[in-house]
Amino acid sequence: MGFEQEIKKRRTFGIISHPDAGKTTLTEKLLLFGGAIQEAGAVKNNKIKKSATSDFMEIERQRGISVATSILAFLYKDKKINILDTPGHKDFAEDTFRTLTAVDSVIVVIDVAKGVEEQTEKLVQVCRMRNIPIIVFINKLDREGKDAFDLLDEVEQKLGLTVTPLSFPIGMGYDFKGIYNIFEKNINLFSGDSKKNIEDTIAFNDINNPELDNIIGKKAAEELRENLELANGVYPEFDKEAYLNGTQQPVFFGSALNNFGVRELLDCFIEIAPIPKDKMSQERLVKSNEKTLTGFVFKIHANMDPKHRDRLAFVKIVSGTFERNKPYLHVRSNKKMKFSSPNAFFAEKKEIVDISYPGDIVGLHDTGSFKIGDTLTEGEVLYYKGIPSFSPEHFRYINNADPMKSKQLSKGIDQLMDEGVAQLFTLEMNGRKIIGTVGALQYEVIQYRLEHEYGAKCTYDNFSVYKACWVQPEDINNEEFKEFKRVKQKFLAKDKKGQLVFLADSQFSLQMTQQKYPSVKLHFTSEYE
Ligand code: GDP
Questions:
Q1: Partner of 288 for a Cys bridge, out of 60, 143, 358, 518, CB 3.0 to 4.6 A?
Q2: pLDDT (tens digit, 9 = 90+) per residue, 203-250?
Q3: Residues 410 and 293 in one domain
Q4: Is 308 annotated as contributing to ligand binding?
Q5: Pocket mutation for ligand 1, best pick of 16, 23, 25, 194 (most atoms within 8 Å of C-beta)
Q6: Closest residue by CA, ligand 1 atom 28
Q7: ipTM of the complex, rounded to two decimals
Q8: Which residues form the Tr-type G domain (predicted)?
């Protein structure tokens, strides 16, 4: 198969949701369709097995949270599907944000009873900032939930989307009879049998056909006709271009647990979802069909095998092919590197591959050379944009609790920050180190990992910060900036890359500072135009 065909074959996407909406269940059913796993429950089981063999994963197991972002790939109808799993727990949101830089589209899972939840809002906001194409899957239709139209309204209002249903439920909960597939124009009757993998559908081009009354009953048939007419009047027709440029979002209904409505979702997905996209770098637009390799690190996974303590850097291939044992330029260090055992991911396994294509993710064994955002090329000096740091929500001083182990502590902190577990700020005034995280849970993760992986001990002290703002002076030599630096000295720090950061202690002081020093721009993310 030619290079272009390989690209066209690939669909790389992420599934995002608030915890418990059904992301894991949906992922598992998708894998079943690809024949990638044989039994239901395999995805979850796999998580537990891993956790038993790795210290860090033990935290995950104990807390029942999916910490790891893993990659699951399978073939379905000749398409190579790469699913980038994303942790739903809010304390790992930053991990999910970074993963979203490596997907070409997303599926959002929403619980029919709970509707749009907090994490869904945050994650969809990030997708919208980047115009990532979104398909919405409303899950758990076998349970009583909100009215379909109310839910569609809620999705539009809370998520700021422009939806159009591509399927429509017939009844719900106890009365759930099935789904009318607007995209394919057929009916799928719900039997409640989760073992049924291939769903039988009944073609129904014209829902006014009286046969519908015989199949789902007169009352349900009339209701469906009314609902579809209403939907037709209210929502725009599905427009693939609008979906691809992020201005329209198709919606499917189903029940992942019952494997119901999942095939419809997948069949539509492979037809409409984008193939690996061109990507803007700081230097130029890189086309996915360029022959030379470019790729970037979006995740570093530590300590998969406790015996080796090495790390796995996840690289998204943007252009060209990634080949085993071929030298590539690690742009940041300006060093050539060769990889004798790059991993590809298939179903829930990883294996060594000789060649990977745009859209694919390769896992590279790493002993500490990689950082999030690093690029690999065949010689070109090129950096990809779009892996910004966001202002953390929590801040604490980190102290060394074992003076004999200060080297281990600073190495550990360094490496954990490179992995993107948290952000380090060093105060300008006295060099004290501050760890910023998205959730309080990360402090425990850091403490645990420093002890178990680096043999170092730390304690924390509270440090009250409202927000970290990246500082962009109009002119570093102007008096206003000099005064800002002098007056705010106590609140200034450097991030890991040496960028200047203002740690505002309250919303009020942030506003006052902005008013007083208008030429000093303060940004909530580390990347800005
Ligand atoms: P995640 O946290 O988003 O990955 O959610 P899970 O896939 O782990 O699902 C959370 C819970 O919802 C589990 O107990 C699932 O069995 C259940 N669940 C998932 N899909 C459905 C569904 O379609 N119907 C019902 N009734 N329960 C579901």
A1: 358
A2: 777 888 888 888 888 888 999 999 999 999 999 999 999 999 999 999
A3: no
A4: no
A5: 25
A6: 257
A7: 0.99
A8: 8-277
